[in-house]
Structure formats: structure tokens, C-alpha cells
Amino acid sequence: MNALAATNRNFRLAARLLGLDSKLEKSLLIPFREIKVECTIPKDDGSLVSYVGFRIQHDNARGPMKGGIRYHPEVDPDEVNALAQLMTWKTAVANIPYGGAKGGIGCNPAELSISELERLTRVFTQKIHDLIGIHTDVPAPDMGTNPQTMAWILDEYSKFHGYSPAVVTGKPIDLGGSLGRDAATGRGVLFATEALLNDHGLSVAGQRFVIQGFGNVGSWAAQLIHEAGGKVVAVSDITGAIKNSNGLDIPSLLKHVKEHKGVKGFGGSNSIDANSILTEDCDILIPAALGGVISKDNANHIRAKFIIEAANHPTDPEADEILTKKGVVILPDIFANSGGVTVSYFEWVQNIQGFMWDEAKVNAELKKYIGQGFKDVKDMCNTHNCDLRMGAFTLGVNRVARATVLRGWEA
Ligand SMILES: NC(=O)C1=CN([C@@H]2O[C@H](COP(=O)(O)OP(=O)(O)OC[C@H]3O[C@@H](n4cnc5c(N)ncnc54)[C@H](OP(=O)(O)O)[C@@H]3O)[C@@H](O)[C@H]2O)C=CC1
Ligand SMILES: O=C(O)CCC(=O)C(=O)O
């Protein structure tokens, strides 16, 4: 099932549990605006190359639309649409005053030089600058983009609108970025995992984790889980997968990845088949890379007791059913990875106030938001007698539905 069909299905199930009327259901599903642009840039060798970029703005009933921009060869409009919709429910679950959006450019950033990436980002910004803004739509990093990408967007946007640091989040600290934003999604994953395990009478210490993806989210999650006493037994990235049943030495692995641009070849580990990472023996599985990786083809072979969805939509609905029947507890993406957008909100607030928080305040506030989010999701699970995914969806959809009705937009 493609990402959009899967996301729509989860939304409809939630709308039914909430008893939303069909007109409101339809208006919540349809995106506010879908932008598609052609970005042509000169390559370093002088030849011209074109890439297609998207920004899908899904909903703004609760505030400015918010969501990352992804650079990846598999970016396609349906997936960006699904990711934008997920942002709407995610910001509502986190209870931050935003709607949802997502962007992407179909390119392979690993094959572009820094100057080509800069030109591409600036051309994309030139094409969408009129449609984003501090109080309309605020982009941030996602797969394949980073604080430098946000710095280029900020600079290009500011040429048209005057200096506007709050137009993007996940910026470098020197340009008004927030302390703690870089680690925030991974830290939120840790806090969310702690809340879930605590609810089951368990703690992170001593649990065996497997993590797919070792970029921003996966590497920070690994580091923080390691510091909290968890044992990270296997990780993977595009270069391959590695395992050590006694626990990988994460600080040394981080150094290795910096030097060798990937996890492959890390001493003190065995190389394993990258396709088997999700079915490795562990207590807790954390997908932190692409969507749709847990499907009906591998769900039956998953050995983890808990899945923490650090990636967006890693689990196909068919896999969801298989895993739920097996008793695997899944902490859904729209709650589990909400730490990133929550600290993006803190960054935006700091920019607007012109007052910088220290990192301890950022992390303490994040912990509060994730703790409250878990309680709110559990309350919805109890009210609607549903699993955590539907608990999170009903929570998010209900908050957006209420705002939509209050604004008189439901007709
Ligand atoms: N950044 C954020 O704040 C947030 C991100 N997310 C989600 O988290 C996920 C990861 O994002 P982020 O960490 O930012 O992205 P990054 O680009 O920083 O990292 C992505 C990681 O996934 C790896 N990867 C890519 N393809 C595969 C594959 N087929 N198998 C195994 N690993 C693979 C990459 O490997 P390599 O580096 O070798 O290419 C890299 O390690 C995405 O789903 C994103 O939407 C969710 C909330 C917020
Ligand atoms: O930080 C943000 O604004 C958005 C992060 C994001 O894209 C996501 O949560 O999927």
C-alpha cells in the first residue's frame, strides 16, 4: 500500500472512531495547497540539470503549516502528501500551535557537490518564497537536508522579504537555531521510549535495541539510548549493517561514521545482511530511515517486542495488523518522532521573542511535552478502546477537527 493510501486509511479509521461527519472528514483530508516546481541548475561542469521539487501544505486550522524538506531520489508527490498530512496530526498530538506541510526534491544529495546543493536549494526557495513564511509555512530539515540547507533557504528567502530567521527551523545556532534542535528528534525518541517502557513496568537500561538508519535521528537516538544504559546491538545505514550482541560501542561508532561516512567496517562488530536488520533479535526495534520498510513480507519475522517509529510511516497497515496480532507494541511516528518538530516550535518561539533559551531548558520542556503527549495518547486509547496508533490519530484528528469547526471551516 503506498504511503498516501496508508495514511488516508489510518485517518479514516480515526474519523470513524471519533464519529466525525462526512463533510468534515473530507475537508480534513484534502490538502490546502500542493506546489510542484521545476528547479533547473547549472552543474559544476557547466551542464544544466532539472529536478522536481514539491511543497505540500496540508492544513493550517491550528496555526502555520510546519514540516521538513527531504532530498532523496525516491521523493514523489504521493509520499510528500502523506508526510504533510502526518505533520498535521503530529503537531496536534504534540499540542503545538501549527498545522502540517512537507517538502521534497527528487535528487540524490550524495551525488551533488556542496555548490550544486546550494544552487538547487536557492532555486527551490526562489520558486516557493511567496508561499512560505513565519506565519504561513515554516520548513525544517528532513532526510538528506541539514542546518546548512536551512541557512541557504533563510538567506534566499531574506533577499525577498528582509532578514527572517523564523522562516525556517533546524538552522545553525549562529543564525538563530535552537540549542538542542540537532538532537531533538533522537532525544524525543528516547523520552517517548522511556514513557512507553515505564507504562509496561520496564526501563531503557538493559534493553537490547536495533536501529535502522544512522543519520540525524538514528545516530542521536543510539547515543542517548547508550547513555541511558540501553544496549544497541545492531545498526544500519546505506553502507551496510553491523552487529555486536554484547552491545556496540556507540561513542567509537560515531567517530568511525564521521571518518568513514558510514557504519560499514566498524571494528568490534560483525557485518550482517542489511535486509535482515529489521528481523534481528532484540527487545526494541527503531526504524529511523525510510518509510514503508515494515510490510507484510517481513512483519511475521520481526522479533522485537516494541517498535518505536522514529521514521515517518515505516509500518504498512497490513504489517500493523500482523504485528498487533503477534502482541508487538508499536509507538506510532506521529507521537514517537514528535521531538523534532516540538523543538522546532521552541526555536520559532525563541526567534520571535528574540530570546535564546539554554539547552537545559529546551530539553526539560521537550521532556514535559513528550510526557504529556504520552498521557494524552493513552487517554484516547482508553476512551476509544484502541491501540497506540489509533490513540495518537484520534488525538491529533480530534484537535484539528475542533479547530476547524471553531473557525467555521467545516462546510
Ligand atoms: N530530522 C528530523 O528532525 C526528523 C526526521 N524524521 C524522520 O526520521 C527519518 C530519518 O531522518 P533523518 O535522520 O533526519 O535523515 P538523515 O538523512 O539524517 O539520515 C537518514 C539515514 O537513513 C539511512 N538510510 C537511507 N536509506 C537507507 C536504507 N535503505 N537502509 C538503511 N538506512 C538507510 C541513511 O544512510 P546514509 O547516511 O548512509 O545515506 C542515513 O543514515 C525519516 O523518516 C524522517 O522523515 C522524523 C521527525 C523529525
Ligand atoms: O521540525 C520540523 O518542523 C519538522 C520535522 C519533520 O519533518 C517531521 O517531524 O517529520
Shape: globular
Biggest β-sheet: count, sense, barrel? 7 strands, mixed
Order of helices and strands: HHEEEHEHEHHEHEEHEEEHEHHHH
DSSP strand count: 12
Q: Using only CA atoms, what is the Rg? A: 20 Å
Distance between the termini: 30 Å
Unreliable segments of 5+ consecutive residues: none
Q: Given the helix and strand composition, which structural class is it? A: alpha/beta
Helical content stands at: 40-55%
CATH level 1 name of one domain? Alpha Beta
Name the CATH superfamily classification of one domain. NAD(P)-binding Rossmann-like Domain
Strand order of the largest sheet: 9-8-7-6-10-11-12
Enter the CATH topology name of one domain: Rossmann fold
Helix count, DSSP H or I runs of 4 or more residues: 13
In what range is the share of β-strand residues?
Answer: 15-25%
Average pLDDT, all residues: 97
The CATH architecture assignment of one domain turns out to be: 3-Layer(aba) Sandwich
Unique ligands: NADPH dihydro-nicotinamide-adenine-dinucleotide phosphate, 2-oxoglutaric acid
